[in-house]
Write a structure and sequence with these properties.
The protein contains 21 helices and eleven strands. It is an alpha+beta fold.
């Protein structure tokens, strides 16, 4: 044994200087014990600013917003077409056609008037291209990754446009999709976390287009016909409902020409109408779903904010402090660290075209159900009423700033950012302002945003458990509110926050990583919401 210890000691004595520096730097980066030992956020901001990609706003003659980042190192081009045609538009084609946009996305490459599904696949594979289509609540996204060599680019581009404009959506393809419904339904019943998300959206949004799952229901997808899918394409996959994002080995002139070539291939059409704002509740809404399990699954929240809300950045900081900062977050401290009531809890703001949800969720033992809800609810109340700790704010901002470069660490992540910028009508240069706006954010501004947007007296609570004493739960919630009124600080007029620049989040997903997608020459932020994407592939629910 002594020989082993001697070996270890000798190894450390002869560690390369570079490795020792890595250890030291890691300790400096992750150690948040004292604010004095943290690197200045201003210094990180300055270093980050130097590497932020320059986004070109292309003057597309078809008036389709087109954003471009030149990345000359890799011979790759990423193209993203983003339409305002997510599942929130399904009901505009017909009654009870939920899942229409998702079905269109799934069947888009199943055959056109000129090519079979196998010929489409073979064409993309023969030139080394990757093509995908996906529907979300707000967005309908098409992605093409191809080599920049014109002999590879042009066939891939032509096939993408062929698929988008001439898909036939034949009945056999629809029937094949329907045959998977039973399997999806069985999987759903075995996954309470996914079920609670569906029920939460339905309970929260009622008859609003956001209420139904993106994939639709068993009954709704049976109503979808090829004619419905073709009508969806004609109405929503049009030039005036589109924005284009391009990243890769192209010159500015070549990128403009490419954007115009794409835009030209779509009919002009009309821009989608604005979505109606959802109705806001003014009291508690408790929904219990009997579920035979030793674990109870809870999600609670309310209708929150839009993507363009000026408090966006302040609420991102607040959410990281409250529920997404790992074991150090307030919610995890109260539920897991102090009391051991759950393996982990989260909170999330999902910013969308119209007000998306704020939610918090976790699972716990049935016997701790009421206690855990009391603790989680009280933690939210205390978070609203208690001034933000300055040191915690600085540590949170520092962590966000250090993570920010992940947003442009590769061509694919850059292009996802461009798609979100275009879709949400954000300024092309706003990535450059993220650091300075984050640095300027004060504790009182964060507190102002919290008190303005979070309402512990109007939560929708969805519970999957064996049983629930609803009257006792209502009493617990009311007692929490009564106690908070006695202890709440006096209301003060807080300074109004100005317009914020911030990285896109919402529903535009981070792309799949690829072996050949190395960091681009112009060089992602943990502000992306996992909750926004777990709902994308939800199975069907009646």
């Amino acid at each position: 044994m002594w020989k082993f210890h001697l070996c270890i000691m000798t190894s450390f004595l002869f560690l390369p200087a570079s490795f020792a520096e890595v250890i030291q730097n890691t300790e400096t980066t992750n150690g948040f014990s004292s604010i004095a030992h943290l690197q200045s956020i201003k210094n990180i901001q300055e270093n980050t600013h130097q590497n932020v990609p320059y986004v070109h706003e292309l003057n597309n003659r078809f008036h389709v917003r087109s954003l471009f980042v030149e990345s000359p190192t890799l011979p790759i081009i990423d193209i993203q077409l983003t339409f305002n045609a997510g599942s929130a538009r399904d009901s505009e084609i017909g009654t009870n056609l939920y899942g229409l946009s998702n079905m269109a996305a799934q069947l888009m490459d199943e055959g056109t008037t000129n090519y079979t599904a196998q010929e489409i696949i073979s064409t993309f594979e023969s030139v080394g291209a990757k093509f995908s289509v996906a529907a979300y609540r707000d967005m309908f996204i098409i992605k093409l990754r191809t080599l920049s060599d014109p002999e590879k680019l042009q066939p891939a581009l032509a096939m993408m446009l062929e698929v988008l404009n001439h898909s036939t959506f034949k009945t056999p393809s629809i029937d094949l999709m329907l045959s998977n419904t039973a399997v999806g339904q069985k999987q759903l019943k075995e996954n309470p976390d996914r079920m609670k998300n569906i029920v939460f959206y339905r309970t929260l949004y009622g008859k609003h287009p956001y209420a139904e799952p993106i994939t639709g229901t068993q009954s709704s997808i049976k109503r979808i016909s090829p004619e419905n899918l073709i009508q969806f394409r004609k109405q929503f996959l049009v030039r005036n409902n589109l924005n284009i994002a391009i990243t890769g080995q192209l010159t500015l002139k070549e990128a403009l020409k490419l954007s115009e070539k794409i835009a030209k291939q779509f009919p002009a059409g009309n821009k989608a109408d604005p979505l109606l704002a959802p109705n806001i509740r003014t009291d508690f809404n408790i929904r219990h779903i009997p579920y035979a399990s030793s674990q109870a699954h809870i999600i609670m929240g309310e209708i929150g904010m839009t993507r363009d809300d000026p408090d966006y950045l302040a609420l991102q900081v607040a959410n990281r402090i409250f529920g997404t900062g790992g074991f150090n977050s307030i919610l995890n401290q109260e539920l897991r660290v102090k009391r051991g009531l759950t393996y982990g809890a989260y909170s999330n703001f999902n910013f969308m075209q119209v007000a998306g949800p704020f939610s918090l969720g976790y699972s716990t033992e049935q016997e701790h159900l009421l206690e855990s809800i009391q603790i989680a609810h009280q933690a939210l109340i205390n978070f609203i009423n208690t001034p933000i700790d300055q040191q915690q704010l600085e540590e949170t901002k520092l962590g966000m700033m250090r993570a920010f470069p992940n947003n442009y660490s590769s061509n694919a992540t850059i292009n996802a950012q461009l798609g979100a910028i275009g879709f949400y009508h954000l300024p092309a240069d706003y990535l450059n302002h993220y650091g300075e706006k984050l640095n300027e954010l004060t504790a009182i501004q964060v507190q102002n945003a919290i008190r303005k947007h979070l309402h512990p007296d109007r939560l929708t609570i969805v519970i999957f458990s064996k049983n629930l004493d609803k009257s006792t739960l209502e009493h617990i919630l009311q007692e929490n509110l009564n106690t908070s009124k006695k202890l709440a600080p006096p209301k003060t007029t807080l300074p109004k926050m100005g317009e914020q620049y911030h990285p896109p989040k919402e529903e535009a997903p981070l792309p799949d990583s690829s072996l050949y997608d190395m960091p681009s020459s112009i060089s992602s932020n943990d502000l992306w919401s996992p909750d926004a994407y777990t709902k994308v592939d939800l199975p069907y629910l009646e």
